[in-house]
Amino acid sequence: MSINRPLEISWFGALCDDDYEFLGVPNPELESSWDHCKNIVLTAEKQGFDNILLPSGYQLGIDGVSFAAAIATMTKKIRLLLAVRTGEFWAPQLARQIATIDNMAQGRLDINIISSDLPGETVSSPERYRRTTEYMQVVRQLLEGKEIEHSGEFIDLKVGPPRIRTVSGHCPKYYFGGFSEEAKNVAAAEADVFLTWPDTVSEVSKTVEDMKLRASVLGRELKYGLRCHVIVRETEEEARQAARQLVSKLEEEVGEKIRNRSLDASSRGVSRQIELREDSDEEGFAEKGLWTGIGRARSGAGAALVGDPEQIIEKISEYQKIGIDAFIFSGYPHITECERFGQLVLPKLAHQSLTHNQ
Hints:
The protein is built from 12 helices and 13 strands. By secondary structure, the chain is α/β, with parallel strands linked by helices. It has a single domain, classed as Luciferase-like domain (TIM Barrel). The chain has an 8-stranded parallel barrel with strand order 1-2-3-4-7-8-9-13, surrounded by 8 helices. Strands 5-6 form a two-stranded antiparallel sheet.
């Protein structure tokens, strides 16, 4: 596979009670806990992944900020992509937390900005994205070492930057995703990496081209990433059988309950994942190598790349050709699939950790 730009290949930390052997069938050994999630991260680092997403939740799983601080001291190479829900922390405190964790991680911290309702609240989409914009701007300025005098709808303060700075002296990269007009406009103006969920190559291409235009109008350029699941086996038939087995014990009412418990279960992005699943063939494939069965028991990213190693690599190549340079993968169970992908696929990809080690 010809690659002109090194890929960023990341894994998923599953802090949000999203780990199964059989979708919809809870397994106490796979519930989010310090020990289990720590082992996922350490496995991903051992396999050579570039980054790991540490998701944000409230009812589900464990706290991402606390976890990031702890795991930062136990890792040496892998970057930490910490999801932060804007409004959960007061902006100056969030800036100080980010700078502290970045120091603990020796500069290996990125931030995934989440713009959903906070626990116990429901606000309009435009209001949420206005709040998100203010937080992204104020936190970035503080982490760039700038004095703040801001009087906005959600943040009203006059304050200097915290004494502690990030290792680079700059704000970590913002990863941000969303499918509404408000979300896309916020991403074009404030994000560094735009994340999209799994879709057909042609539809992802349309999203990338749309975002490139929005960013260019503002004189900006973004990097583009895909959050997706993966099921890889030695042969295509083994991969397809693993997909069938994953949902073999799933009861539809259980899947619906899982889908509806997320704070963003009614978002435009979730609606698109439902459309993708409804348009798939009888086996759940939206196109060759893209299986939507996972979305039967998941609110967010609801599809997986399924195939043998060469098919997975070819699918990744198709996405990279239309502008995707960052991939955040996950698979069930997370440690087992992380090891499979790390052994069968990762060594054959020109990605950041491999490139930096050469």
